[in-house]
Amino acid sequence: MSVLPRLKSVSCLANDGRVVVILDPRTRVELADPTGQVLKLLHLLAEGTRDAAALAAELSTVDVQVGEDEIATALGELDRLGWLEDAAAPRPLSETERERHYSNLAFFDGFTSLTRSRESIQQQLRDAHVLVLGVGGLGSAVVQNLVGLGVGRLTLLDHDTVALRNFVRQFTYTPAQLGQPKVEQVAAWVREFDPTVEVTAVHQEVTGAASVAALLPGVDFVVMTIDTPNDVDRWVNQACVDAGIPFVRGGLAYLQGLYWSVDPGRSACRACLDTYRDRLAADEEVMSWPLVMERAMVNRGIGPVATILGGLMAMEALRYLTGIAAPVAAGTYHLVDFTGDCRISTDPWPREPGCPACGVGEAA
């Protein structure tokens, strides 16, 4: 089937031989249109029923003949601007799926082209398998976002049980579930919210890289929100790097939220960060002083914190799973200031040559 280019929903202003087109409110594009053919082309494209040959025929007059090659050039430029999609693209979703994921498909409009459709992006999510390590406040917030995005398969791991203090930030539980395994309750919420999602609950702790590696076959992406034992970051990093599976890590440092990700073979990994920190510490005398007092580990996560961080981590997962945009947090701390205006700052670290985990490449 030939491509039927269709103009996306745009605003268009025309006056005195000029046309202004606005798709994204942040950008407007002005086109010269002394003959009115540009505006006519846009109207024809809005119908999405003609291929390049038909468009050329419609635009040709007794005095002006428009060739297919000219139309192809124009379509290429409009596609480059992000204005076109293919009305004849395959539609793998059912009517029910289109209705359920209506807003997802509308959002994906900003990333489609003549060669990539909205439904193909949604199908990528439906085909994806995500492992979530930890389904407390932050983890369950990510799970809720992933299910809303339409991720089709989830494996959830946690060893904790529901406690009264969880309810300020964990919204998949009810008081009737106090004392029950968190992971089972979150899995039950997923099944009730979207019965088409395949979800597996694993009630256990992470005890080493091998325990993580055992969960990775068939997984496309990993979300990590647990922070104990102390070596858990290194275990998850090693297992994911060895398997070539990207992951995102999130948490809270006092009143500062943080998340970062690792793209194996492309970005710095968590072990690179350790080497980088050791090098920085060697240059700071104070870091060699003995520790005489240590701040108590207290979970200060509240509902808005979990919701904001969970959403940001789910967006990073979306980038990895679909490729609609490059991951923003690969080898880069993203720090969210919850004491002020929630502004995000970034702090990248380099990929280390000879890293014991990823072990390839040169420092960035």
What does this structure look like?
- The structure is a single chain.
- The chain is built from twelve helices and 13 strands.
- The strands form three sheets. An eight-stranded mixed sheet has the order 8-7-6-9-10-11-12-13, sandwiched between helices. It has a three-stranded antiparallel sheet with strand order 2-3-4, with no helix packed on it. The chain has a two-stranded antiparallel sheet with strand order 1-5.
- Helices cover 36% and strands 18% of the residues.
- A hairpin with a 2-residue loop joins β10 and β11.
- The model has no long low-confidence stretch (mean pLDDT 93).
- α2 crosses α3.
- The longest helix has 20 residues, at 303-322.
- It has two domains: 5-86, Outer Surface Protein A, domain 3; 128-348, Rossmann fold (3-Layer(aba) Sandwich).
- The protein has helices at residues 37-47, 52-59, 68-80, 95-100, 102-108, 118-127, 137-149, 182-193, 209-213, 232-243, 270-282, 303-322; strands at residues 5-7, 11-15, 18-22, 29-32, 84-86, 129-133, 153-158, 198-203, 221-224, 247-253, 256-262, 332-337, 344-348.
- The two termini are 45 Å apart.
- By secondary structure, it is of the alpha/beta class.
